[in-house]
Request: fold
Amino acid sequence: MADVVVTVPKRFGLVAWIAEGDPAGAPWSGNIWHFNLWGRPPQIAPGERVYVVYNGKLRGYAPLVRISRAGPDFSLVRHGGAVAVTIDEEITGFRGYRYRWWEIEQERPFPDWRIP
Reply:
């Protein structure tokens, strides 16, 4: 299995995404969060990482809890536990998901992840 990468659309906005809940560094609120996608779900197992990109920058990851299916759509489901990390590479936004293409050793803490 493998970690996956998703993009928050610019039109949705970073503030709106953060407001959805349990951002990096926050304790788990007890809520369950879904990142909705369509098509074929990725080959990923619970505990593996779902990375998030916004405005060309890797913002961090959260551990996958499960994949939830609803017809042709699916959700990557997470609880708390998000971690702010980035890499020294600009990432162009994309639809759907991709598998992580960088080495974990390239990741570094990203204390300014909330800045668009």
Summary: Strands lie at 4-7, 33-38, 49-54, 57-63, 66-70, 73-78, 85-86, 97-99, 108-109. Residues 62 and 81 are 6 Å apart (CA to CA).
